[in-house]
Amino acid sequence: MKKQVTEILDDVGSAAVLVFRSMAYTPKVFGNWNRFIEQCHLIGYTTLPIVAILSFFIGSVLALQTGYALVNLGGETFIGAIVGLSMARELAPVMVAILLAGRVGSAITAELASMKVYNEIDALVTMNIPPERMLVMPRLLAALAMMPVLTIIGNVIGWIGGAVVCQYVTFIGVSTEVYFQSLKSVVTFKDVMDGVIKAEIFGFLVILIACNTGLRTKGGPREIGSSVTRAVVVSLITILVLDYFITRALM
Amino acid sequence: METTQTDPDTETTRPADNEAAVGVEVEGLRKSFGDTEVLHDINLSIKPGEIFVIMGPSGSGKSVLLKTIAGLETPTKGRVTIAGHDIAERGSREKVHMALVFQAGALFNSMTVFDNLALYPTEHRLHGRKEIEKKVMDALGILSLEDARDKMPSELSGGMKKRVAIARALVMEPQLMLYDEPTSELDPIMGATISEVIADLRQEVGLTSIVVSHDRDLSLTIADRVAILMDGNLLAVDTPDKVRNSDNPVINDFLNPVIDVNNPRFKQKKAAS
User: Fold this and answer.
1) Which pLDDT does position A220 carry in this prediction?
2) At residue A10, does pLDDT exceed 80?
3) pLDDT attached to residue B16
4) Which of residues 93-152 of A touch B (CB under 8 A)?
């Protein structure tokens, strides 16, 4: 137990040091522009298709479930509002963050852990090229740049998914106009922004956890695998626990 | 344990005259991992421009000593200063230019050979693109690697990886070069070439070199001084000739092991325990 607590404190401490050291290199982002763009491509563009597909179906299922529950009570006009708010404030940011942890975070941890185990990180240090500048800072900034884009696209596609279900599922039968009217009457700019703020925090932490776990890997191939698992699990726990507190703080 | 250490100022046979070369001082160095101390009170003084070879059996702490000198391991006690800068202090790397050739190469696996070599001058904006290309190709030429420039590290043999790692270090134009087993995994001719490259670098640019090696030919031919490290203790620090003619039986056995199939060492150890 004492060992586990020490390990957790070690992780938190090293992540704090890593974030300060990495963000201190932010002014050097223009010197690392290609790496920043490459990471934006990886985090944003390559994650977009899966975000689009999942958002569509999450919006659809949400409309289906709320439609099923509300249609007998005559509350089908609220479906747009419920889907709109849920997607904007909760589901889109959390879903994007979870996808980021599974798809990008795991890849980052595997790459950095492999670099650590095979002395590539040590080679960078002896070359006086700080890994925080070359490997961590561009990834953190790319996450900050791409999370709002992914979240807003997730929102819009989720809303459209809900609209399609409302229109074409016969027992709901709410027209697209009524659905979006309901959505617009409730969802405000602040709701969307609150979701984006959440996504920014989650995205930043997911990438930080992924980098920190990768750079702290010791051992061989087996430890690389363990680090990837650990990074994803810690990211998911962090997202879901923080979600409550950030949501509460933004209310 | 008793250590015989010669005065580097008087004993170094081929002093360098390059002002850029740096000296290395290791003072009271101890390094522990958990409860196990792997380096016990190491004291060394390596002169600018010297080729200093650290020899010793596997597990004697050679690589740990090299990594501690490189600043990749923090001393448990004592300190390492390079040109007067404590290497454990932040910012010392900006004052001392060193390159470390890792035992397994430590090439960046996601980059081509050319990009591996060009990374350092590009990141530090040392030269223009054409100049960097010329320096990279020159370094590849020294190690007969011109054809490998566009290959990925995964396409190279173990020996080629090591040569690329040395070429990468050459491009860095360091003041201090650290080699971890530079000739292991190489064929005898390439091993000799690497030894010549190390010696030539000192002659050309007066580079200080610290080499960890098992290679007797390399150690006793090109070294100015040789240190024998056993179980984390320095047994001797002396010129190759004096180490070769040492009357210490442990050093003699290490440098000139006799293969006795009738009385093998592992059976002697078993019997002793």
Assistant:
1) 86
2) yes
3) 41
4) 111, 114-115, 118-120, 122-123, 125-129, 134
Q: Which of B99, B106, B123 sits opposite A129 (nearest CB)?
A: B123
pLDDT score of B239 more than 70: yes
Q: How many CB atoms lie within 10 A of CB A41?
A: 13
AA identity, residue A25: Y
Q: Residue B97 has what pLDDT?
A: 85
> CB pairs below 8 Å between A and B: how many?
49
Instruction: For the beta carbon of residue A11, count every other beta carbon within 10 angstroms.
Output: 16
Chain B, nearest residue to A134 by Cα: B123
Place of tokens 């370094």: B139
In sequence order, which ranges of A172-188 are alpha helices (DSSP H)? 176-186
Whole-angstrom Cα distance, residue A127 to residue A139?
A: 21
Residue of A nearest to B124 (CA): A129
CA distance B109 to B162: 13
What confidence tier does B273 reach under pLDDT thresholds 50, 70, 90?
low
Q: Which of A111, A119, A128 sits opposite B94 (nearest CB)?
A: A128
Pairwise CB contact (< 8 Å): B108 & A120: yes
B130-146 average pLDDT score: 90
DSSP string, A84-119: HHHIIIIIHHHHHHHHIIIIIIHHHHHHHHHHHHTT
Check B100 against A128: CB less than 8 A apart. Answer: no
- What are the backbone dihedrals phi and psi of residue A248, each rounded to the nearest 5 degrees, phi first? -65, -40
pLDDT reported for residue B252 = 81
Please report how many Cα atoms fall inside a 13 Å half-sphere around the Cα of residue B191, on the Cβ side.
15
Q: How confident is the model at residue B268 (pLDDT cuts 50, 70, 90)?
A: confident
Domain ranges of chain B: 4-97+174-272
Report CB contact under 8 Å: B99, A114: no
Tell if the CB–CB gap between B123 and A114 is shorter than 8 Å.
no
| Phi, psi (rounded to 5 degrees) for B81 | -115, 135
**Stretch 76-95 of chain B: residues touching chain A, C-beta under 8 Å:** 93-94
Task: Output the CA torsion B61→B63→B67→B69 (10° steps).
Answer: 70
Range(s) of the domain holding residue A92? 2-250
Residue of A nearest to B123 (CA): A129
CA distance B96 to B161: 26
- B206 and B17 Cβ atoms separated by less than 8 Å: yes
The nearest CA of chain B is from the CA of A227 a distance in Å of 19
Chain A residue with the nearest C-alpha to that of B125: A31
Is domain B4-97+174-272 given the CATH code 3.40.50.300 in the classification?
yes
